């Protein structure tokens, strides 16, 4: 598979890029070089190798959910610019 000048024009149009003629030629060559490099993967023996979605095994990085006491309401509201009935008071966003 190779990238043609028409392909570069099409992608530039989709991306709303105004490329010069020199840039179109440059990108056509660069994209073809990338594809040629990626084609080397076709030569690898992948027999018996299970497909993976990640290069490294993923583990859950979340901590255990532990119940702890909350801060006292006085301490929570100490820096609130405005409060009402033990709750933060904020400007209305709906009319």
UniProtKB/TrEMBL annotation:
Its EC number is 6.3.5.-. Keywords: ATP-binding, Ligase, Nucleotide-binding, Protein biosynthesis, Transferase. One of its GO terms (molecular function) is ATP binding. One of its GO terms (biological process) is translation. It comes from the Bacteria. The keyword Protein biosynthesis applies. Pfam families: GatC. It catalyses: L-aspartyl-tRNA(Asn) + L-glutamine + ATP + H2O = L-asparaginyl-tRNA(Asn) + L-glutamate + ADP + phosphate + 2 H(+); L-glutamyl-tRNA(Gln) + L-glutamine + ATP + H2O = L-glutaminyl-tRNA(Gln) + L-glutamate + ADP + phosphate + H(+). It is an enzyme of class 6 (ligase). Heterotrimer of A, B and C subunits. Allows the formation of correctly charged Asn-tRNA(Asn) or Gln-tRNA(Gln) through the transamidation of misacylated Asp-tRNA(Asn) or Glu-tRNA(Gln) in organisms which lack either or both of asparaginyl-tRNA or glutaminyl-tRNA synthetases. The reaction takes place in the presence of glutamine and ATP through an activated phospho-Asp-tRNA(Asn) or phospho-Glu-tRNA(Gln). Belongs to the GatC family. This is Aspartyl/glutamyl-tRNA(Asn/Gln) amidotransferase subunit C. It comes from Paenibacillus silvestris.
